[in-house]
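Batch job 17 of 40 flagged for manual review because the log was empty.
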Amino acid sequence: MSPIIIVVSSETPAQQNERRSYAGLASHESYAAALRRLRPGIELDAVSCLETGSLPDLARHDGIVFAGSPIQMHEDSAEARAAVRFMAQVFQAGVPAFGSCAGLQIAAVAAGGATGPRQPGAEVAFARDITRTEAGTRHPMLDGRPATWTAPAMHSSVVTRLPAGASSLAANPDTPIEAAEIRHGRGTFWGVQYHPELSLTEIAASTVHQSDDVIDQGLARDRRDVEAMAARLRDLDAAPTRVDIAWQLGLNAEIALFDRRMREIANFLNAVQAGALRPL
């Protein structure tokens, strides 16, 4: 029997519409589409952690998934405060949760950790050389991952300090926490700084949308360079076994193939179905 999952948005309505304009779907809608592809028949509900004062009825839900967004959790904004209040309720309820990118940052801050701007700048398109920590070598969220891998990514801030009761599971040279488990209150949260749920076509769209930032960071000479890379990404997404394109981009099957790209999310759903993440 498929689990019943809440998909949480932390985008404002304006941010949702902006993402729809260049990527086709808001972040929570994209996440829901990936979950349905991964688990046909899965039952999903949607809620915004910015617009609701309380959680929906959790009695019929098996887990909660947080989509990414441009929210900056190190800024004292109404959106950041609302996200923390929402996540605090999730921890108190004891419902297992998973988050990508901003989802990890929301959980970290809500449990007492901290976030800040990433140095030397945004992690664009890919998080490369993600490597397990000692704790990550035996953690079920990373089951099936090789020692080092590449994943879709698009973020300008990172978790700078994990809260008490948390474990860093993976890192790369420029991002100190790429994956983590956070235990707080009655809840268990698994999260990644990258985006397993994003297709290469979505990464291409986001990269083109942020062309100016990509060029300013010296990652491309001009917009033509960005668009050429985006075209190769779209081609690889359409034909994920094209080893020539993967080689040109420095990628492999861990990111090109849907089932392997979604491994952390699949492991979370498996753990939820097994009841492994519920409070004792």
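Reviewer: the log was empty due to a logging misconfiguration, but the result itself is present. The chain has two domains: 4-198+257-273, 200-254. Unflagging and moving on to job 18.
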